[in-house]
Specification:
With about 160 residues, this protein is α/β, with parallel strands linked by helices. It is built from 6 helices and 5 strands, in the order E-H-E-H-E-H-E-H-E-H-H. The mean pLDDT is about 95. Bound molecules: adenosine-5'-diphosphate. The site of adenosine-5'-diphosphate has 19 residues, from helix 1, strand 4 and helix 4.
Length: about 160
């Protein structure tokens, strides 16, 4: 069975991430969204919160699962029997970053990275931009984030201000 892991910080999951998940679910027999911990980024949501929110969003995709990943992506992949890593590319900066991680991962284990290009309408969406405009009170967040996530995100951003 072709099993792919889509690892990321997903702080929060955006429409760009969701598009990659949907497209990957049409390519691989199983896709596991791996909620990781990017040590260089301070997180707004806890891994458990992310997992709950993402699970709600992908509930209608039968071959998509969500899991919390600890440690290296390749270690997690070994545990779940996955051979493919899916990542998204928005621009040249993403490409350089992804090329380096893909190189590291293939040196660490027998895995293949599959890079999917972001749709033009998602190219400018990033979790950090979403948090920034959300914290300033933008009211049309559904343009960037799945509906099921908007409320939880607003709540968390408001709590952070207090
Ligand atoms: P990480 O901290 O591991 O980079 P992110 O949650 O920021 O985690 O991103 C996970 C993956 O999703 C990365 O490959 C990133 O390039 C990709 N990605 C992020 N935003 C988008 C988007 N708007 N469209 C497509 N792919 C995206």
């Amino acid at each position: 069975m072709s099993i792919a892991v889509f690892p990321g910080s997903f702080d929060p999951l955006t429409n760009g991430h969701l598009d990659i998940i949907k497209r990957a679910s049409g390519i691989f027999e199983k896709v596991i969204v791996g909620v990781g911990n990017n040590t260089s980024k301070a997180a707004l949501l806890t891994p458990q919160e992310k997992m709950t929110l993402i699970s709600t969003v992908v509930k209608d995709l039968p071959n998509v699962e969500v899991a919390i990943m600890k440690g290296l992506t390749v270690q997690f992949m070994n545990e779940v029997g996955a051979k493919y890593i899916v990542r998204g590319l928005r621009n040249g900066k993403d490409f350089e970053y992804e090329r380096d991680i893909a190189g590291m991962n293939s040196a660490l284990a027998d895995v293949e990275t599959v890079l999917l290009l972001a749709k033009p309408e998602n190219q400018n969406i990033s979790s950090s931009m979403v948090k920034e405009i959300g914290s300033m009170g933008a009211d049309n967040m559904v343009k960037f984030v799945p509906k099921a996530i908007v409320e939880a995100l607003k709540e968390r951003l408001n709590a952070q201000k207090k």
